[in-house]
Specification:
Distance between the termini of chain B: 28 Å
Number of domains of chain A: 2
Number of strands of chain B: 0
Number of strands of chain A: 4
Largest sheet of chain B: none
Structural class of chain B: mainly alpha
Number of helices of chain B: 18
Largest interface: A-B, 9 and 9 residues
Distance between the termini of chain A: 17 Å
Oligomer: heterodimer
Number of helices of chain A: 5
Radius of gyration of chain A: 26 Å
Order of helices and strands of chain B: HHHHHHHHHHHHHHHHHH
Largest sheet of chain A: 4 strands, antiparallel
Helix content of chain B: over 70%
Helix content of chain A: 40-55%
Order of helices and strands of chain A: EHEHHHEHE
Shape of chain A: rod-shaped
Shape of chain B: globular
Radius of gyration of chain B: 23 Å
Number of domains of chain B: 1
Chain lengths: 172, 447
């Protein structure tokens, strides 16, 4: 017996949140939720795992720090030794105060940009991509909940109605 | 209601007694004549096998004439005598200021909670009020110290030396004469008095209103306290800068840094938040703060993490501009610290104040583990003691510094006094405020 996916539309985030909690408690499988804005506490209620993007951000920061260190050494000391602030020591360590702002900035730059790119890739987003949301109103003021069941579809539909769903349809 | 545990009270009293003995030893063992200094020098030379490093740098930053004869033996010995005599005073002042600034920083944090109408921190208000109870005794100690230092001329604040302002004297100092409209003893004393009075007045007012709000029917006292906290913050951020110039920066009277007030503040603030977190964890572990949950600890640890980075930012900013410009009158401050024999402390304090908190407290989960916060907190506090030490000692004690019995005795005495005063104050009122409009939000606070 194959499973059926039901799409339910809500028009209030609090109603949606309590519906998600109740469905979880009733052991339904929540496939996807489309919301026009981040709903506080929805990730926990839907049982999403904690994001690991913080770890990638730390790693990207270290890459940026390393890159900046290498870059400043290559540019200012190795390739073309330069006199920094009247201190022609041509040594990375002795001129490091001048390099630290750049190392800091590139740490932030790498962490921020690579984190955003990672997020896009992980969310399968790229330029000119066709929108995935099944109903255009989820970008305005409606919330769409996809829940699947292998059992009685009618029971689920009634349950969703009781929970405050405004529209219910079966996903094609 | 919290009751001061016997064990803690006993250890506070033991700290104080040990501390007094250590301080007394420091004053007793300081040399009183040049003959004593010569004996110490003989001893040092035998021990280390090398002569003292030239003390040129100290002369410059102590506001004395840079180009005078240094090989004058008796002058050198007199200078060493003053340095060694300054050491116990310096030790006492550093510890005194360190614990005073913790109470003051806590008061600022408390005022910021009121002024910003923060919702998360209400359950911690009584803890903060308890810690700020040390403000009054701390202020009195500072006031007494500054009056004594002004009165008996023990070479602590060198700019008070009358010779610098006498055109006939060979020590006549034009720079100090130019600054004397601000940096003269009576005005300096009056300013100190104003700062301490203002801060203590706000503390008295805020705690009184907070207690009155407990049994009030409307929000009158809360509103008054909120308004007062805004005026206090304006007053504080102006006077804090001046305080740091007057009490600390004027130890090196030729040198100036416009960032110095903020630098002292960052050290003060991160130490204060650390102490709030530590006292909160202690009280919670004894079951006195049932409403404080992990999210409150998480937020305090976030502040510890953030302000540790803020401190490092200012530490570096102040240094980098002076390093880059490389002007003699500015670099004089960094010569003993970066190149002289304070190098280990000056660079090394980045470890407890920056590297350790950033690595330990970066992970979100660790910010909720009490023993992580406590151990990081102890390291942060040690680091910021060293920070204050490096701000003050090079100007007063110079090359003769050490962290020995006088320093540790002073820390123990003021630590004991701090614990005694703070935990006595915590027993005076219920540990949860009532009637604050954000109380519910704070109780339900979840991150």
């Amino acid at each position: 017996m194959s499973s059926t996916t039901i799409q339910a539309i809500f028009d209030d985030d609090d109603v949606l949140l309590s519906a998600v909690k109740d469905l979880k408690a009733a052991n339904y499988r929540i496939e996807e939720i489309f919301t026009p804005f981040p709903v506080h506490g929805l990730d926990k209620a839907a049982g999403l795992k904690n994001t690991r993007i913080a770890i990638t951000s730390f790693i990207y920061g270290l890459i940026g720090l390393g890159f900046a260190t290498w870059m400043m050494n290559f540019m200012m000391v190795a390739d073309w030794p330069q006199n920094i602030g009247g201190k022609p020591s041509f040594s990375f360590a002795e001129n490091s105060p001048a390099f630290i702002p750049i190392m800091f900035e590139l740490t932030v730059f790498f962490a921020a940009h690579l984190m955003v790119i990672t997020f896009y890739m992980r969310s399968k987003l790229w330029p000119f991509k066709k929108a995935e949301n099944p109903d255009v109103r989820t970008t305005d003021d409606h919330f769409l909940l996809e829940v699947s069941t292998v059992n009685d579809v009618k029971t689920l539909e009634n349950l969703l109605k009781d929970m405050g769903a405004k529209e219910i349809k079966t996903k094609a | 209601m919290y009751s001061f545990s016997k064990k803690l009270k006993l250890s506070a009293i033991i700290f104080m007694i040990t501390g007094v003995l250590g301080i007394a030893y420091g004053f007793y063992s300081a040399p009183s004549t040049i003959a004593d200094v010569q004996e110490i020098m003989m001893h040092q030379e035998n021990a280390h096998g090398e002569a003292q490093v030239s003390n040129t740098n100290e002369h410059i930053e102590n506001g004395e004439e840079a180009n005078k004869e240094h090989n004058d033996e008796s002058e050198h010995l007199t200078h060493m005598l003053h340095s060694l005599q300054n050491r116990p005073y310096s030790a006492v002042f550093i510890a005194m200021f360190f614990f005073f600034m913790i109470a003051l920083g806590t008061l600022v944090f408390y005022a910021i909670q009121y002024a910003s109408q923060a919702g998360w921190s209400i359950v911690l208000f009584r803890v903060m009020e308890g810690i700020t109870a040390y403000l009054l005794p701390g202020s009195l100690f500072i006031l007494a110290f500054l009056i004594i230092s002004a009165a008996n001329g023990h070479h602590y604040y060198v700019w008070m030396t009358p010779d610098f302002y006498n055109p006939q004297s060979e020590h006549y100092d034009e720079i100090l004469v130019g600054k004397s409209w601000w940096l003269n003893t009576p005005f300096w004393m009056i300013r100190t008095f104003i700062y301490l009075l203002g801060w203590n007045f706000y503390r008295y007012f805020a705690v009184k209103k907070s207690l009155a709000q407990d049994s009030a029917k409307d929000l009158t006292y809360y509103k008054k306290s909120m308004k007062a906290s805004i005026y206090f913050l304006i007053f504080f951020f102006v006077t804090e800068s001046m305080m740091s110039w007057d009490w600390i920066m004027s130890l090196t009277p030729h040198w100036q840094s416009s960032l110095f007030g903020w630098y002292v503040f960052s050290s003060m603030f991160v130490s204060a938040i650390t102490v709030i977190a530590m006292v909160t964890i202690y009280l919670r572990s004894r079951g006195f703060l049932p409403k404080v949950n992990d999210s409150h600890l998480h937020d305090l640890a976030k502040f510890m993490f953030g302000f540790s980075i803020f401190w490092t930012y200012l530490w570096f900013s102040q240094f980098m501009l002076i390093w880059y410009a490389n002007m003699p009158e500015e670099t004089a401050y960094f010569v003993p610290r970066l190149l002289g024999n304070y190098q280990l402390l000056f660079i090394g304090m980045l470890l407890p104040n920056f590297v350790f908190p950033i690595l330990v407290l970066m992970n979100s989960d660790y910010k909720r583990v009490p023993w992580f916060i406590i151990s990081t907190g102890i390291i942060i506090l040690i680091g910021h003691y060293v920070d204050i030490f490096v701000m003050i000692t090079p100007a007063t004690v110079g090359d003769q510094w050490n962290i020995g019995i006088p320093e540790i005795g002073s820390i123990l005495f003021f630590l004991g006094l701090f614990i005694y005063v703070v935990f006595t104050a915590l027993t005076k009122s219920p540990l949860l405020v009532k009637g604050n409009p954000f109380l519910k939000e704070s109780e339900h606070f979840r991150y």
